[in-house]
Specification:
CATH superfamily of the largest domain: FAD/NAD(P)-binding domain
CATH architecture of the largest domain: 3-Layer(bba) Sandwich
Radius of gyration: 29 Å
Strand content: 25-35%
Number of domains: 4
Number of helices: 23
Distance between the termini: 57 Å
């Protein structure tokens, strides 16, 4: 029996910049056995800087100008974590994340870009919209565009852009082009004597002509000294009015880079050697705008990050495999292609300058070719013997044992539980026994449930949260309050250090949810296997002080059916596994799964619901049939079904969960519908849900009050989807579907 490959080291990529997406693609094409790669980014999509002006101008769609990091990681076999890094400890090799546990690394690479320098001008941070992060800029621009084009009151609007470099010029020209013929005036405020410092005079002349053509007022030698809610105060004391202000000035680094104690330049950017490693730390790399190569300082420009990508990939592989690293030699000059709003552009490199539509087509071709690398992803190569970590090559070749021999080692388990018991002192029993005394008084009914999930999301902290909420949902459907839980975990084969890291993340996620509802994790069982699975036995007692539980069966004819959460997780994650889902839709589906049913259950009890069930693996229809108990029917309005973004499109494309067919076989014959119903919505009745919502039956006179209370508690999708009926003689099926 061949021994399974164990995970031995963690490579963590912080940021989805140009260097990282290229490096990740290259590493995935030739995987390293025993290596786990994690990419951390605040958003699922990373903008390609070259196409951002075209996005603002309307020449490109969002998907054309952004790299879907969630999809790229799914293809690469890497973990994708949606989070903001807030700190770096190079001694303990830990990365602090906002609102969640830290991540430990063996090798880390930073490619988080830069941000406009706001703090040197009083009021700028409070009143200006920085061009980075692009997600914030895009959201602000969309709101502004709708305000001008849809809700325009007829009043003139003055938009100010602070900058003067290529980025600010491209931004103001793009906005002016998109809002042409609208009552909008633009001002470009530049502190330098001329715009486009570092560019040739002929290129500057062409750009100035385009700015004039679009009526943009260029103010040079005009340094902004302060910003209020509607006025700019200049260094000479004069003031200027504005309605919207976009900030595109000199670059600044994230403050946690300097706070880490790593060597930086005078501005706080990470100082790196020619190997792209930090000056005094071989395990930390830096690329893109956040790093400065001390021997070859260069301006902040995306072209340098793109050129660093192959060297970064080679050196990350080399440091992990104990091989020789390469040195990066950035070019002295690069071709600058400046978008001019409409489909014209200016090219500038040394003595060469050109402007015209053909330059834009040239630029467009270059940009689309770059983006095609991440849209048309090739088939990944399989690991080769020479691409194994040295630690793995030195490990025992004995096959991993089964039975109790497959348990997670006591040292890794004890260390993880000891740490978590400090973080969650009231909700984690540090001993982690296989059996425990439940803190439940005698004479009280006890509800117990067990649920186990295979890995659905690659982020272990989120996976722990989802598994806990999914297990607790069965208690909530009964109107029970959770009291205690036991864990049942299977972790992929790995060394003890990796196992401890994974345990900490998974159980910290679960404890995040258990602590929120005062549920004690009393212990459990952990073992190793071919793939991750996370499950919990949960115990609860009635929420109702009288000891009554919510029945699954008990709805009466005339009762209305309230669904608390949207459908579609099954089809969306099936699409994600096939690289067909948009990362934004996957993130929204994950957020839906992370919304627990505790408050919804409390409201169902408070509104005297007659019956309740949770929507999980059997889909809405399967669980509705259980609720009806064979003695009742129901009418559903398909148009009222709340649906997650992208789910209907995936179903129409034929993408469904592997459980979908079984759900149709078991429940499909119980429905009757006309030919006019939306087939995709009908198919969603069979879509298996993970951590789905509650389906609640209650008298009509209380249903709207329940919906209002659910909305006020954050269940914004909650809606009446139909009503319970009697079983009419001669009816072909108990479930009637309508639009």
């Amino acid at each position: 029996m061949q021994a399974a490959a164990e995970l031995r080291r963690d490579l963590v990529l912080v940021g989805g910049g140009h260097s990282h997406v290229l490096a990740l693609r290259m590493l995935a094409m030739k995987p390293i056995a025993g290596l786990r790669i994690t990419l951390i980014s605040p958003a699922s999509h990373s903008p390609y800087s070259g196409m951002l002006p075209g996005l603002i101008s309307g020449h490109y769609r969002f998907a054309e100008s952004h790299i879907d990091l969630a999809r790229l990681c799914q293809w690469a076999g890497a973990r994708f974590i949606t989070a903001e890094v807030t700190g770096l400890d190079p001694v303990d090799q830990r990365l602090s994340l906002a609102g969640r546990p830290a991540i430990t690394y063996d090798v880390a690479s930073l490619d988080i870009g830069s941000q406009p320098e706001l703090d040197s001008v009083p009021g700028a941070r409070e009143h200006a919209t920085p061009v980075k992060p692009v997600a914030g800029l895009w959201q602000r621009w969309q709101a502004l565009y709708e305000r001008v084009t849809v809700h325009n009151t007829g009043q003139d609007l003055r938009i100010a852009v602070a900058g003067g470099g290529a980025g600010s010029v491209e931004l103001v020209l793009a906005m002016a082009y998109r809002l042409q013929a609208k009552p909008v005036h633009f001002d470009l405020w530049c502190a330098a004597p001329d715009i486009l410092p570092g560019h040739g005079a002929r290129a500057r002349k062409s750009v100035l002509a385009q700015l004039k053509r679009w009526g943009i007022q260029v103010q040079c030698n005009a340094r902004i000294a302060a910003v209020s809610g509607s006025k700019l105060t200049l260094a000479d004391g004069s003031q200027a009015d504005y309605d919207e202000l976009f900030w595109c000035t000199g670059a600044a680094p994230a403050p946690w880079i300097a706070a880490s104690g790593l060597a930086t330049d005078e501005k706080g950017f990470l100082a790196v050697r020619d190997t792209l490693q930090a000056m005094h730390d071989d395990c930390i790399f830096g690329a893109g705008d956040i790093a400065v190569q001390v021997n070859y300082p260069r301006p902040k420009a995306g072209v340098y990050a793109v050129r660093q990508g192959p060297v970064l990939a080679h050196n990350l592989r080399a440091v992990l495999l104990h091989k020789a690293l390469r040195e990066h030699r950035p070019q002295r000059r690069f071709l600058s292609l400046i978008s001019l709003g409409d489909k014209n552009a200016t090219a500038d490199r040394g003595a060469f300058t050109a402007t015209g539509r053909w330059v834009w087509r040239w630029k467009d071709s270059i940009d689309r070719k770059f983006m095609a690398r991440f849209e048309d992803l090739p088939r990944r190569m399989q690991p080769h013997r020479h691409d194994s970590l040295p630690e793995l090559q030195q490990a025992s070749q004995q096959a991993v044992c089964g039975g109790c021999g497959a348990k997670v080692g006591a040292d890794a388990l004890a260390a993880a539980l000891a740490k978590l018991s400090r973080d969650f002192p009231d909700h984690c029993a540090g001993a982690g026994d296989d059996a425990a005394v439940l803190p439940i008084a005698t004479g009280i009914p006890v509800v117990q449930s067990l649920d186990v999930l295979r890995e659905l999301v690659a982020d272990p902290w989120q996976m722990g949260r989802i598994a806990a909420l999914h297990a607790l949902s069965d208690l909530y459907a009964c109107g029970a309050r959770p009291v205690s839980a036991l864990a049942a975990l299977t972790l992929p084969y790995a060394g003890n250090v990796m196992l401890q890291r994974e345990l900490e993340q998974l159980l910290a996620g679960a404890l995040h949810e258990f602590a929120a509802v005062d549920c004690l994790l009393v212990g459990g069982h952990s073992m190793q296997g071919a793939e991750l699975s996370v499950g919990f036995v949960v115990n609860g007692v009635p929420m109702d002080r009288g000891g009554a539980l919510l029945p699954k069966v008990g709805a009466e004819p005339g009762d209305q059916l309230v669904l608390t959460k949207a459908l579609g997780t099954g089809t969306l994650f099936a699409a994600h596994m096939q690289l067909l889902a948009d990362g934004r839709d996957v993130n929204a589906a994950t957020a839906a799964m992370l919304q627990g049913n505790a408050k919804a259950a409390e409201l169902a009890v408070a509104h005297n619901a007659r019956a309740c069930t949770d929507i999980t693996g059997f889909g809405l229809l399967g669980h509705l049939l259980e609720m009806l108990g064979g003695a009742r029917g129901a009418r559903l309005a398909l148009s009222q079904l709340p649906v997650l973004g992208g789910a209907l499109e995936q179903v129409r494309a034929g993408i469904v969960s592997t459980m979908h067919a079984a759900n149709m076989r078991s429940a499909g014959s119980f429905i009757q519908h006309s030919s006019s119903v939306d087939e995709a919505r009908r198919q969603l009745l069979f879509d298996p849900q993970t951590s789905g919502g509650l389906l609640i039956a209650l008298p009509r006179e209380r249903s709207q009050a329940l919906c209002a209370a659910l909305h006020n508690s954050g269940y914004v999708e909650a809606v009446v989807i139909g009503e319970v009926t009697g079983l009419e003689p001669g009816r072909a099926a108990p479930i009637q579907l309508g639009d």
